[in-house]
Amino acid sequence: MSLRLLKYAFIEDYAEPRYFNTPDSLGDSYDVVIIGAGGHGLACAYYLARDHGIHNVAVLEKGYIGGGNTGRNTTIIRSNYLTPEGVRFYDASLSLFRDLSAELEINLFYSERGHYTLAHSDATLRTARWRAEVNKHLGVDSELVGEEHIARACPELRQDCGGNHPILGALYHAPGAVARHDAVAWGYGRKASQAGVEIHQKTEVVGIETQGGRVSGVVTNRGTIHTSTVLSAVAGHTPGVLKMLGLSSPIEIYPLQACVTEPIKPWLDTIIVSGSLHLYISQSSRGEMVMGASLDPMELHSRRSTFEFVSSLCDQVLDLFPFLSEVKINRQWAGMVDMTPDFAPIMGTTPVAGFFLDAGWGTWGFKATPISGKTMANTIATGQNDELITSFNLSRFEDFQLVGEKGAAAVGH
Amino acid sequence: MKIIHCPVIGPRPLTEFTVVGVSAPEPEDLGGMSPGAWVFNRDSVPMERTEWWYHGATQLWFKVRRHTGADRIVGVELARANKNG
Fold this sequence. Notes:
- The complex is a heterodimer.
- Chain A is an alpha+beta fold.
- Chain A has helices spanning about 5-10, 40-50, 85-100, 100-105, 120-135, 145-155, 180-195, 240-245, 305-320, 370-380, and strands spanning about 30-35, 55-60, 75, 110, 115-120, 140-145, 170-175, 175-180, 200, 205-210, 215-220, 225, 230, 250-260, 270-275, 280-285, 290, 330-340, 345-350, 355-360.
- Chain A folds into 2 domains: about 25-70 and about 180-250 and about 345-410, FAD/NAD(P)-binding domain; about 115-175 and about 250-340, 2-Layer Sandwich (D-Amino Acid Oxidase, Chain A, domain 2).
- Chain A has an 8-stranded mixed β-sheet with strand order 6-7-5-15-16-17-14-18.
- Chain B is mainly beta.
- In chain B, about 5% of the residues lie in helices and about 45% in strands.
- Classes of the chains: A alpha+beta, B mainly beta.
């Protein structure tokens, strides 16, 4: 037990300092209003204050901090993408993640595990080699490895896969990591809050006002705010926010489900992903097996969980790790994700002046939390798209300039 | 397991189907909309809509009326009535 905890046993009034300010009322106006207090929104607020001296910022959250996809993902952080723009972007995020615990003064349990994307077919092996070469060219540590390497890293893995789809090799990405996802939101929230940013929970945005093609205010369930700059950093509700401004996007909302088992002794110290089997698995620092699969089969605006998901996932997991058959599933949950046609985000400026978008984060958003906050802060402060995100603009669909990141999705969708 | 009640083939589990996408008539002309917007843009807010569903085992196509917010199926009909009954 830490001394700090022991101290509380002898003190009657031991209120911990609160992580965030809890302002009583909404202000009349702010320089910047951010919709969504998830990792991305709070990171942007933090970098606006730290890098650009913009402190008069309100972050509005319909629910509670980090209660959306920030707290629902399977916490994997990697940069072994397929396109050069993707690799550069996610690798910048990984660099920020490495120092983030110290910077935010909170233990993120950032843990580099090594990340294996298993290949069960020649086609997957070909994409793995392609990704390895693009990665190496850009200085990212990825390589194609064979059976022996995988067996050394994970002797428990049954490589013949029950005879159905034997493993032919894997894309190995040494920097692949996991982290405590809630702490990322709390850490950014606390630091932003200390810098003067206001975080308003249980505050729902119901409209965005414009004047002469420019953003002029935000209407919430607690009153109207004047502002010239709005960032939408929501997930699962982006089309609804865009509709407030008469904008359209290719985003479609799908549920993505995940689950954890009961905690067991540590045995898996790497991250295992199989696109062909539609699964990813790692072990949390609490000992739970954290598992996810591909998207639900149809568009849906709901966070309901299904038996179909958990039964088909377990079926595939047992092909790789038959000994897990005795382990119980403890919890399952779902998040609503913004899917885009090219598996890349939609970031930056929009046709409405003063309205910025950090959306389309599909199944790949958590790992990008630091860099999306940083680049969006820069984009908002300068009014110009940060050079790392120019390929991700909303206008790329009108121009048929898609990014083509589908080959680097963790699992087939 | 969610069960879909279909004409001709009766009650079937959801996992037997592939949801192909929304069924909407193609417009005569785009009326000022750019080709990129027509190809890519979606209106993904909760609504009741008709979708194409394919049943692999019987190779039958269905038109399924579904509410995308409530996860509720309102109606199922064969996409094209079979001439031979």
